TrEMBL record:
Motif Histidine triad motif per UniProt: ranges: 148-152
Lineage, highest ranks first: Bacteria, Bacillati, Actinomycetota, Actinomycetes, Bifidobacteriales
Residues in HIT domain copies: 54-163
Superkingdom, taxonomy of origin: Bacteria
Stored InterPro entries: AP-4-A_phosphorylase (IPR052908), FHIT (IPR039383), HIT-like (IPR011146)
Any Pfam family matching the protein: HIT
Renumbered residue ranges of the record's region Disordered: 1-25
CDD domains attached to this UniProt entry: FHIT
Protein name per its UniProtKB record: HIT domain-containing protein
Length: 200
């Protein structure tokens, strides 16, 4: 974090400059944090130009461009471009379905297994003190992309609420995301090289 700090900017760990936000648990699951998928090129929130679902589009790109950390047989792990916290991953089925009840048994198994694998990867890469894991299913429940199921895997560290909103706004986030993806991808492959289910 220090390297991306311009002269005169306060330190991100300075509690005087950045008082902790209120109700951080509320903040963690507010759906407006997912609006990045609806931003246009100027950064304004709008309807997507392309009708293509971002979780269908992501796996069609390279791992680097799509921020893909791991590709399974039925599901994949993708970095959240606007994370709730540093290292926020999402587990998605390749198939465009909205609810966990839409998954078949193989998809469901790999979906949940990949979630535990993501935790193991995070333990190795960044040693979190805890996690928030969950799915917002349906727009009414706060899903930003309700049509395509995604499970959030958010690492937490003691005291992270003090810097979380700052990190989310820093200009160096794209670099952090790229580095984080690479670290995760290396750990996914090393820790579970034969994890993928055989294709049906
Ligand atoms: Zn989709």
């Amino acid at each position: 974090m220090e390297s991306g700090r311009a002269a005169g900017e306060p330190r991100v760990d300075d509690p005087e400059a950045f008082p902790p936000p209120e109700d951080t648990v509320e903040r963690l699951w507010t759906p407006q944090r997912m609006t990045y998928v609806l931003r246009n090129d100027e950064g304004r929130v709008t309807k997507p130009k392309s009708k293509e679902c971002p979780f269908c589009a992501g796996p069609k790109k390279s791992d680097e461009d799509g921020l893909i950390a791991w590709r399974g047989t039925h599901v994949f792990a993708i970095m959240n471009l606007y994370p709730y916290n540093v290292g926020h991953l999402m587990i998605c089925p390749y198939r465009h379905v909205g609810l966990i009840t839409d998954l078949d048994d193989d998809e469901l198994f790999e979906f949940e297994k990949a979630t535990t694998l993501a935790m193991t990867v995070m333990k190795e890469v960044s040693r979190p003190d805890g996690w928030n894991i969950g799915i917002n299913q349906g727009e009414v429940a706060g899903a930003g992309v309700a049509a395509h199921l995604h499970q959030h895997v958010v690492p937490r560290w003691n005291g992270d609420a003090n810097f979380m909103p700052i990190v989310a706004q820093t200009r160096t986030m794209p670099i952090l995301l790229s580095d984080q993806r690479a670290a995760y991808a290396e750990a996914f492959e090393r820790l579970a090289p034969d994890f993928r289910l055989p294709a049906a």
